[in-house]
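TA notes, week 10

Several of you asked for a full example with nothing omitted. So below is the full record: structure tokens for the whole chain, then the designed sequence directly under it. When grading your own attempts, check the secondary structure regions first.
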């Protein structure tokens, strides 16, 4: 790898050159775990000249997987940013995790990026976490390029049907592979009809040099026919989607569509990509050093520059740093469209929008309104906020204790820092026991947090048993009323509330409330807010075990408030009335049910199915994927403790699996009674 001084020298040279926004690409690499994201990133850094040796995930020496936990496990845990140049363009790249426990890392990376490269294992196609990260990219309207990696694997299949069917993506095929499996040697560029061949002579060959030549009659007839058919289909597809290109064909190339210049075809594909009407698809093998340079060219050719994504807010910070994984270089200034770090912001968290002053925020708001043609008057503008990130609810929790009470303050400081860095980590204090409780996205997530506290903060903590974050709902409709009458000093507070609760679909994962028309028109906004606070606070603790509620709706029938009554007293009365109604409606525990995907060899299917049956699992489908079987099932999260270890044992390590939250379902009476007794200390 590069030495630190070499890396810093590269960065200083990089930032000494002014790069205009049109020459910048802010991109993320996203995929299912083990699809080859980090390996692809490593090759990009090497071919761009920013590292001088190829790192390997298995050897634990890649640039972006710099955390000790990442190098020990061979997976990406937190997003890492790197910056390099390619063909006179600046590429700011973020390598994101593929494990479901760290989905939020992908979310907050996509939130600030302009484009993304979705990496696929060509032998597996679209996998569980691929669907998740693709949905995240769609939510943020991110233009994407697809890269079918691992074309060297024996089971590799150059098929884009799974992308079309499962992701509902309009794929635009730009390359045809030359060979497959161990015979994969390169690609044919359908825009230029150039054949790109990597003649790798040994494992030590770095793939930097490759042969590029036009297709001619000496090439295999089957390849020539496949390329001709694919290019004709590409031209037809682009013409159907891009009116400007269709007009060009009909006007200037009506006699021979194939004569259209590659540059015109490339411009049309770029327009489709930026408009998210199409997704360019390329292929290669990053581990075998084949096909990465054309992918870099595609990033520049098809993904947007910052000024094409309308990120027009510019801020001036006191100290700016450019990230290169775990190394940073201080720079004097930053032009619009770049990605940088700043230090000293002690009160900010992920999702905040930072401005230099109220005046600059007002000016930016006015510019935004002017650009949108809103015609707002000065002083009549809204606050400009960039969209935040949606943080999923934790599904696991456990207690954490310092070795001695003298370390409690240090532990609290460590947890505060980690929460600012990772919003999916939640920390609370149990009101009954006073213990600190960690809430996370999965076993691995909490395990990593525990390990980081030990390594980075030097605190040896003890974790309690891992527990499932259940939810509660109500069984029946119930109505009740309550009156609160309190006198404090000379001020009397009197409020009477009547409301009703009823169950709705708990799978929707939400609770809501509404006023009757009479109440809506009678209450001031201040008192409406007070009523809402009372309702929402009651949703945080169910009537059975105190778990948060799902699938409950509340209707406020009447609110009578005597003059002089404070909003706090209104909230208190509503909360007390809600608690009564929830108890009358009867409680039901909901358990998180996970969507499980296991890829195994066929002879191991019986053992895995037998284990799954003992975990209250329900098989949804068993699919074939080349020589393997893909088992799709739903399983209660409570039954998945330690599953990775058990699966590794019964399959001799020849299996992979992914797990993500599917829904919350009502527990059967027997399991619910067992849980109630366990919580009550009777078991």
């Amino acid at each position: 790898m590069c030495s630190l001084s070499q890396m810093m020298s590269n960065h200083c040279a990089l930032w000494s050159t002014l790069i205009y926004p049109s020459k910048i690409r802010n991109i993320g690499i996203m995929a299912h775990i083990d699809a080859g994201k980090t390996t692809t990133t490593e090759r990009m850094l090497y071919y761009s000249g920013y590292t001088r040796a190829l790192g390997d995930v298995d050897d634990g020496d890649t640039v972006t997987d710099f955390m000790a936990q990442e190098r020990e496990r061979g997976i990406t845990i937190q997003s890492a940013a790197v910056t390099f140049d390619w063909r006179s363009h600046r590429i700011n790249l973020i390598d994101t995790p593929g494990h479901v426990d760290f989905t939020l890392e992908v979310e907050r990376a996509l939130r600030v990026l302009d484009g993304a490269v979705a990496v696929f294992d060509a032998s597996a196609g679209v996998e569980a976490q691929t669907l998740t990260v693709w949905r995240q990219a769609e939510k943020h309207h991110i233009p994407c390029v697809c890269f079918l990696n691992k074309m060297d694997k024996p089971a590799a299949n150059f098929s884009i049907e799974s992308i079309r069917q499962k992701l509902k993506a309009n794929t635009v095929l730009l390359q045809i592979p030359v060979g497959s499996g161990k015979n994969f040697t390169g690609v044919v560029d359908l825009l230029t009809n150039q054949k790109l061949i990597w003649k790798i002579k040994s494992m030590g060959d770095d793939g930097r040099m490759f042969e590029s030549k036009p297709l001619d009659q000496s090439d295999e007839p089957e390849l020539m026919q496949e390329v001709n058919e694919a290019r004709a289909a590409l031209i037809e597809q682009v013409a159907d989607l891009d009116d400007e290109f269709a007009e060009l064909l009909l006007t200037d190339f009506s006699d021979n569509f194939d004569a259209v210049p590659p540059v015109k075809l490339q411009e049309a594909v770029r327009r489709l990509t930026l408009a998210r009407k199409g997704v360019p698809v390329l292929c290669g093998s990053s581990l075998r050093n084949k096909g990465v340079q054309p992918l870099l060219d595609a990033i520049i050719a098809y993904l947007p520059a910052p000024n094409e994504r309308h990120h027009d807010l510019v801020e001036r910070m006191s100290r700016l740093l450019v990230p290169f994984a775990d190394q940073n270089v201080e720079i004097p200034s930053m032009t619009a469209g770049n990605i940088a770090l700043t230090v000293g912001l002690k009160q900010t968290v992920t999702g905040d929008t930072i401005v230099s002053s109220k005046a600059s925020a007002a000016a930016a708001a006015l510019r935004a309104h002017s650009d949108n043609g809103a015609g707002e008057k000065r002083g009549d503008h809204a606050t400009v906020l960039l969209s935040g990130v949606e943080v999923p609810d934790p599904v696991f929790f456990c207690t954490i204790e310092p070795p001695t009470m003298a370390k409690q303050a240090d532990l609290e400081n460590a947890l505060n820092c980690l929460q600012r860095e990772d919003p999916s980590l939640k920390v609370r204090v149990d009101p009954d026991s006073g213990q600190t409780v960690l809430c996370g996205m999965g076993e691995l997530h909490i395990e990593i947090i525990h390990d980081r506290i030990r390594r980075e903060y030097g605190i040896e903590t003890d974790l309690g048993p891992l527990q499932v974050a259940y939810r509660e709902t109500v069984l029946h409709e119930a109505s009740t009323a309550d009156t609160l009458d309190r006198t404090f000093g000379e001020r009397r507070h009197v409020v009477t509330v009547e409301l009703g609760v009823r169950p709705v679909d708990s799978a929707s994962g939400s609770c809501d409330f509404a006023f009757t028309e009479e109440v809506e028109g009678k209450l001031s906004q201040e008192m409406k807010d007070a009523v809402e606070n009372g309702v929402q606070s009651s949703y945080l603790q169910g009537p059975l075990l105190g778990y948060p509620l799902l699938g409950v709706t509340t209707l406020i029938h009447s609110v009578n408030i005597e003059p002089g009554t404070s909003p706090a007293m209104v909230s208190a009365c509503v909360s007390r009335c809600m608690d009564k109604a929830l108890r009358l409606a009867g409680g039901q525990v909901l358990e998180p049910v996970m969507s499980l995907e296991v890829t195994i060899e066929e002879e191991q299917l019986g053992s895995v199915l037998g284990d799954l049956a003992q975990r209250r699992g329900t098989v949804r489908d068993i699919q074939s994927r080349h020589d393997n079987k893909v088992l799709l099932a739903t399983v209660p999260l409570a039954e998945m403790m330690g599953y990775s270890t058990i699966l590794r044992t019964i399959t001799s390590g020849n299996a992979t699996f992914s797990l993500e939250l599917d829904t919350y379902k009502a527990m059967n009476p027997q399991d619910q009674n067992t849980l109630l007794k366990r919580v009550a200390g009777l078991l």
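The mean pLDDT is 84. Use that as a sanity check on your answer.
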